Amino acid sequence: MLTRRDLLLTPLAVPALAAPPSRFLGVTVMPEDYQVEGIDQVLRNLKERAGVTAVATSPYVMTPSDPEHGQRQPPIDAGAGGVRLLDRPLWGRRELYTTSSPSFVPNLALYKGLPYQPSAPDDLTRREGGIVREFLTKAKAAGLKTYFQIQSVIPPDYIVTSGGPVDEDKPRLPDGAVPKRRVGNTGSLASNGIRRYTEALITDLVRQYPELDGIRVDWPEYPQYTLDDAFLDFGAPAQAAATRLGFDFDRMRRDALELYRHLHGGLTNRDLESKSFALLPFQSRAPGLQALGRFKAGLVGELLAGFRAALTAAGGAGRELVPNAFPPPFSFASGMDYRLAAKHADGISVKLYTMHWPMILRFCGDSLLAANPGLNEALLATSLNRALRLMDGPGFAHLADYTYPGPETPHHAGPVVQREKIRYARQAAGTTPVYALAHGYGPRTDFEAPGRPPGTRSGSTATAT
Question: CA-CA distance, 203 to 153, in Å (whole number)?
Answer without folding.
Answer: 16
